[in-house]
Hints:
By secondary structure, the chain is α+β, with helices and mostly antiparallel strands. It has a single domain, classed as 5 Propeller (Tachylectin-2, Chain A), CATH 2.115.10.20. Helix content is about 15%, strand content about 35%. The chain is built from six helices and 27 strands. The strands form eight sheets. It has a five-stranded mixed β-sheet with strand order 22-26-25-24-23, with no helix packed on it. The protein has a four-stranded antiparallel β-sheet with strand order 4-5-8-9, with no helix packed on it. Strand 11 and strand 12 form a beta hairpin. Helix 1 packs across helix 2. The N terminus is likely disordered. This is Galactan 1,3-beta-galactosidase.
Amino acid sequence: MARWSSAGSRCSWRRLAIFSLTCLLIFQLYSFFSRVGKEVENMKHLLALHPVPLRQLEQVEQMILLPPHGLRHPHKINLNDEFLNSSSRARNIFFPREAIDPKTDLDNNGHHCYPGRIWLDTDGNPIQAHGGGILFDERSSTYYWYGEYKNGLTYRANGTGTARVDVIGVGCYSSKNLWAWKFEGIVLAAEERNETHDLYKLNVLERPKVIYNKKNHKYVMWMHIDDATYNKASVGVAISDSPTGPFEYLYSLRPNGFDSRDMTVFKDENGMAYLIYSSLRNKEIHITSLNEDYLDVTDKMVRALVGQHREAPAVFKHEGIYYMVTSGCSGWAPNEAMVHEAESIYGPWETIGNPCVGANKEFRVATFFAQSTFVLPMPGGASGWFVFMADRWNPSDLRDSRYVWLPLSVRGRKERYIGVPLWSRVSIFWHEKWRIPTRRD
């Protein structure tokens, strides 16, 4: 009787274990399909708001490149080498001759972006706003694009040998739709004669960014200021009563005593503003808050991405999480972008990978042969969508550097993407042609 009782007991325990595992599996499957159902409903809601643009923007668009005619060994072509070779037969891949012209393209192509093409303003001239950023002015419901005005001859600087154009100033363009841009003029001009001035034409003015201060009603511009040898490594500050200038240059400084090269500014929803810059000769990123009038830094500063040698920071925020796109340090040669995230602007910052999706591998590891400069919330109210702005530098003719604008999407930390393949939570999608959604879409 004892043996039968023992066997029956073991059998009961097995049945109980199998029953428990079955219940657990059913619960897990129910939870999984519930989450999938919620995500599908969320996606349907977003697609109901923007049915066509979102479907198009998230499509993975591949790129197949035919080798340029006449190459002896076309299978051995190195796109990085071809990009830096101004006489390459592959030049048109990176710097196509076609232009985006708002005067002629409006009826035919309707507000489409073509990354890498010449982009003309409403007067028919190539836009000169390199290394720039965009301010949306709530008072006028207008976008203002500020950037380096490089419409001059490219030459090699004495001492460094780097390609450069004499400083002309900061160009400003205005638009209601982020596609047709009106030239508003040079809103901060170079100094032609005073060799001791920060803005003297033989010095360096790069990456201007403008934010608006609601307390003093001033438009504040921050920029990278340097000498011809890149040893000054400072930031400059200018102010204006109007988004179209003129801006009054105030001074330069080394934030908290540290050298500053590639930089950006970020204004949070609560009105706090921050300066983010490459420091210690690009070995790390520093983040410091600005004071109430945005004209100086505070004592609060943190070091991020220590030892990672990152530059060209572009900072944005989604659902309480801060994100930063950076590039590596390789001169004019393109390199792989990385995205970093943090729950606080002061970190800690975690690197979450290369965001580039589509095209081909060589384009993805070269950030589509461009370098980050700014990330702008996508108009139209689509949550989690942004415009990634980058420069495709042309070191042989800097004024012919191009703009690579592409859609960037961010998924919540707790979301599980149900598509295939499973790419980064922050994704920049390659498109040879795409349209920025508007509220009318």
